[in-house]
Design goal:
Blueprint: H1 4-22, H2 27-34, H3 38-47, H4 49-67, H5 69-90, E1 93-96, E2 99-102, H6 105-128, H7 133-149, H8 156-165, H9 169-194, H10 213-231, H11 239-269, H12 276-289, H13 293-308, H14 310-313
Antiparallel strand pairs: 1-2
Length: about 325
Amino acid sequence: MHLVPLIALLAGAASGGLYIYGLTLTITGVFLLLLAPLPLWLAGLGWGATAAGLGGAVGAIGVLLVAGPMIGSMYALVLAIPAVILVNLAMAQHRDPGSEAWFPANALVSALVVIGLVQALIAALALSATDAGLVGTVRDNLVTVFGAYVTEDSGEGSGAVIDQWDSLVLGALIAVTMLAQVGTAALAQGLLAAFQKTVRPSPSFWALRVGDWTRVLFVPLLIAVVVLDATGIAAQNGPGGFFQFLGMAFVLVLGVGFLLQGLAVMHALTRGMRTQPLVLGGVYLVALTFQPFGSALFALIGFFDRWGNFRERFGVGDDADMED
């Protein structure tokens, strides 16, 4: 127990350092930025939720002192607080006579989606309070990015790209941070397992399912976004544009849950195969490289798995000894 403060201090310093370096927005920096939750997950899954909470506080204070209150607040809201909440849930345990039941992995994914929805709402409201509004702020930043990295463009080409993808930006950024939480959590559990330091048993990813409530929200939101887009109302920096951008952000956040279930289906269908690493390598290559269509493909698999029951339909066994 006496190690917890030291672990928390080291985790917070490492997480804050990764985040600050990531703000350089180099390729290496962005990669390290996405790894910023990893030290908090290592501390939490290895030494308890208190270590993760203290580490998150240390990291937030450190980033605030070094980079200022705005950057410190972003670190806390985007990475540290979600990681601490999820670690606390992951380490929660319900004790019954003669058995121990950990907080279910399916419920953890649902909690991640709820956190993403809350983040999208907070971000949309904060940006709408600026002089340019939500739509204007997003478009202005896209213009700045194209001006910095697409210097040969006359403006017409970048303008068309901005018009096509501007409503996806907010949701895409939040979706990336959600996937960073999932990836760093899995990496932390794997590293701790390698050193026999795990507290909670590793869940079976192949059996993961997202809550049905996500589908209930997803369909009407998607219809509303398509209708708003068809009217061209997002071009107007008013309530219509705000709701289209926010609705699209919600759609993408919910899509992360479907993507995880779709990838779980692929893990399940390849269990026991000698070629599983090769097949899954191709799956993740497609999902990561061919954006946004690669991720959308596996998100669709996850969405329709509720009715298709692909794992049961194709006779996937539940033998715990089979390779995941």
